[in-house]
Amino acid sequence: MPKDEGSKKGSLAMYIIIVGCGRSGSRLANQLSEEGHDIVVIDKDKQAFQRLGSLFNGLTYQGNGTDRNLLEEAGIQKAHGIALMTNSDTSNAMMAQIAKKIYQVKRVIAKIYDPELADTLRDFGFDIINTTVLISQLVRDRFIEDSLRVCYRGYEGRLELVEVPSHEKIIGKKYGNLNIPGVFTIITCKNGSNLLMPTPDMVVRKEDTLLCLLNQAKRNEVLDLLGPAFNQPKL
To answer: 12-132 falls under which CATH superfamily?
Structure first.
């Protein structure tokens, strides 16, 4: 059964439904349950619930996540969010529409493999995790280390938080001249143990490491700005 109010960690506990108890769905369920949220897991295969382990403290329902009767029994009317984690793009897309259009669930997150379908659903306002794009980008980064160390990647890999060590092409240049609106923005810089908020008139020093936001689609434009050394993979 879900945890009692008194056993939850803080007052921000949510009621979340997870459809699909595969490797990623079960891991998500276990993590959220451990954090004190009320979790309901739905899967067609009863054996899949074995992945949840003995410490899982939520509810499980065997059945199809597109079944509205089952969703209502699982408490979708009061759900703060639903995560659609099956291996079927078609099922996840259909369930996303049911949750959003019929039950007005505030947070609907769907795992989608097909990049084109992911883009289409995103255009219609759905929160989509496109695992194909994310994994291919991660593998690409392992092969090609272009001296932009990625600290964080969000919005399906379209926005990156990167560290850029100072380089002869940018040392002595003003920080304001390195920013490219909508493409590359320097947030702060590290110099030894000091963290600085550079003004546009400050110049890059040899010991500086820049912390920047990068539009991933414009990465090559940024690499050209930083100099040829950043275009060469580390072998």
So the answer is: NAD(P)-binding Rossmann-like Domain (3.40.50.720)
pLDDT per position as a tens digit, 11-42? 588 999 999 999 999 999 999 999 999 999 99
Single-letter residue type at 112: I
Question: What residues have CB less than 8 Å from 126, skipping those under 6 apart?
Answer: 96, 100, 108, 110
* Percentages of the chain per state (helix, strand, coil), in multiples of 5: 35, 25, 35
Tell me yes or no: is domain 140-231 CATH 3.30.70.1450. Answer: yes
Note the pTM of the prediction, 2 decimals. 0.67
Beta strand 149-154 with 15-19: parallel, antiparallel or unpaired? unpaired
* Residue that the structure tokens 């949220």 belong to: 37
- Give the Cα separation of 19 and 29 in Å (integer): 10
Q: Is 27 helix (H, G, I), strand (E, B) or coil?
A: helix
**Residues facing residue 17 across a β-bridge:** 40, 82
